[in-house]
Amino acid sequence: MEEKRSNASPESRGGVIVRTSVIGIIVNVLLAGFKAAVGLIANSIAVVLDAVNNLTDALSSVITIIGTKLAGKKPDKKHPLGYGRIEYVSSMIIAALVLYAGITSLVESIKKIITPEAADYSTVSLIIIAAAVIAKILLGTYVKRTGKKVNSGALVASGSDALFDAILSASVLVCAVIYLLTKVSLEAYVGVVISIFIIKSGVEMLLESLDEILGRRMDPDFVKEIKATVCEEPEVLGAYDLILNSYGPERIVGSVHVEVPDTMTARELDAIERRIAGNVLEKHGVLLTGVGIYARNTGSDAVGAMCSEITRIVMKHEGALQIHGFHADEDSKTVSFDVILDFALKDRDAVFADIRSEVEAAYPDHSFNIIQDFDV
User: Fold this and answer.
1) What is the dihedral of CA 333, 337, 343, 348, to 10 degrees?
2) Residue 164 and residue 256 share a domain
C-alpha cells in the first residue's frame, strides 16, 4: 500500500472509519442472515459459505472499529509516538479470521463433493441472492472510496473484499441457475473456488500487515516530494538518506541528511535545520526528528576533480546507485563519502570491497572513510 497523508484530522478520520465500519456491519449481518436462511432452506453449501463470508466481513468491521479507537489514543510516557500501529495489528487479526473462514469453508466444500446433496432453489431465493450481489457492489464501492479518502488500509481492504464477494455471490447465482436448467449441481465445486479465494485474500492481508509492521519502503513519489521541499532552501545542495518510519497511517517520523557549503556557521546551520523541519511538517505532515549535515568542499578545484574521478570509479561498478556526502580534508588528506548499492546485488559486501580497493589504489596518499549506505 502507498503511504499517503489524508487531509482529515485524527478525530474526524476516526469518526469516518467508525461510521463506515458500522454501515458495513449492518449490511453484512443482514446479508448473512438472508443468505444463511436461503442456503439452509435450499440445502446449498455454496450459499451457506457465502453467508459465512459475510459474517466474517462484519466481524472484520468490528475489529476495525476497535483498532481505530485504540490507535486514536493520545501519546503517553510509555508510547511517546502514539498507538497508531495498533491498526496494523487489527489488520493481522482480520487476516487470521479470513484465513480461518476460508480453510473451514474449503473443508466443508470438499465434504460436499465426497457426499453430494441435491439443492432446491426457489424464485425468492434467487431474488435474494441477486439483491445481495447489488448490495455488495454498492457497499464495496462506498467503503473502498472512503478508505482511500481517509488513508485507511483496513477500509480499503474491506471495500476490495466486498467487491470481490459480489463476484463470488454472482457465481453462486449462476450456479443456481445452471442447476435449475440442467439439474447439474456445481455448488460444492463453486464452494471450493470461493474458499480458495477467501484463503488467498487472507494471506494477502496478512502479508500486507506484516510489511507495515516490518517497515516497508515508502511511496517513491512521496519521498521525492519531501526531498523537493527540503531542497527548496537555497543553501541546500542535495537531500539524502531520507528515512521514514510509520507509527500508524497518520504519524510518520523521519530524518534526513542535507548537503550544504562547508563555509556555513553553526548559527546558519541551526536556522536552516529548523526551517526544513517546519516546512516538511507543514507540507507533508512528517516529523523530522533529525536533520544531518554533509559539508561540501568549496573553493578547491583539486577536490572537485577528485570527487569527479572517485564518482567515475564508483559508478562504473554494477549495482552502484549513488555516491553522496563527499568531503575531503586537504590538510589531513582524509576523504569521506557514502556509496549506495542496489539490494539486488548478490554480494554487496564484495562489490563494496572492490570499490574501496580501487579508490585507495587511485589515491594512495589519502585515507578514506567510506560508508556502505542503504537504498532507502
Assistant:
1) 10
2) no
